Amino acid sequence: MLEQAIIFIDNVSLKRSITGKIIDILLRTDLEIVGMKMFVPNEEMIKDFCNIIKSKISASYIRHSYIDKRILAIVMQGENAVDKVKNITGRERTKMKRDYWHGTTIRGIYFGGSRKINPFFKVYENVVQIAQNRHEASRLIKLLWGKYQESSISLRHLRGYEKNENEERTFIMLKPDAVQYKLIGKIIDDLSRSGLYIVGAKVAKPTVEQVRHHYSHLKNKGMDIFRRVVNNIYKKGESKVIQLVYQGPKGEVMRVIREIIGSTDPREAAIGTIRRSYGKDLDSNVIHASSSLDDTERELALWDTQNELLEPIITYQLEKPEVRTNIPKNK
User: Fold this and answer.
1) CA 243, CA 301: separation in Å to the nearest integer?
2) How far apart are the C-alpha atoms of 67 and 11, rounded to whole Å?
3) What domains does the chain contain, in order, with CATH numbers?
């Protein structure tokens, strides 16, 4: 059965720079990423989340650790998606469940331990929080892409993490080849070496007009090059991309990011850079990054639209809760 599962990578995991590693493990399944969003929950959102979350351990952690913090939500789709995500994520870890600790799941590898809230109460940092069943996943996705759509509708705005005079941003796009060959986690992991932090994330299906506009400067190098690059991104409307916004100290963001991704032509890029490691040629170099602050603003204005691959209304119906009826026993 085709399903969507939702995963929340919390602020502690983001700070530990294990976001890419977590995504890489999730992509070991046959599921595809169809939604991605960075958001900062307020008190009202936390209450709504905890009313949906079945797990008391997760609800307790969310209540004490999510408010006013960056959270990355990821939606994955495929056959029996919820069970597959649960299996690769691993069980919640507590003192009473040591038998479930092992190094083949996300929580088994990256468990963050426990943190005392007061002398009598502690929460367990289980790296990610997930929906426990199909009904719960549907309600959480509808909540985030529905009721709280406006809370993170823009790649350019993340509540509480607005750019100040000492910071700058760059726009990054993981191209269709990176998505198709499941390089998303590996590339984000490489980008984590920059020391910058993510303030925007989205999965999108580019329109041909957007791609042509984005690469219009290549017309000066010849229409053949321009058409090849456009076709590589657009791919007859079947392609999808991951769009990210990174933020950090002024004067450092552009330089650091471009050093990590390498030269435009992978064959000329330095060993160890993203393009040299994962790219093929000038047309298929897996990643785009803004080359200047002006380009960042221009590209964000172009791509920051509502063409998300994940629609606000989820593609399957909510499961109806099982209704138990009292059947008289035979006398």
Assistant:
1) 13
2) 10
3) 2-152 (3.30.70.141), 167-303 (3.30.70.141)
- Neighbouring-strand partners of residue 37: 73
Which has the higher per-residue pLDDT, 25 or 300? 25
Cβ atoms 254, 292 nearer than 8 A: yes
Residue 288 catalytic?
yes
pLDDT tens digit sequence for 187-205: 999 999 999 999 999 998 8
Q: How much is the pLDDT for 97?
A: 58
pLDDT at residue 155 greater than cutoff 90 = no
Q: What pLDDT does 124 receive?
A: 86
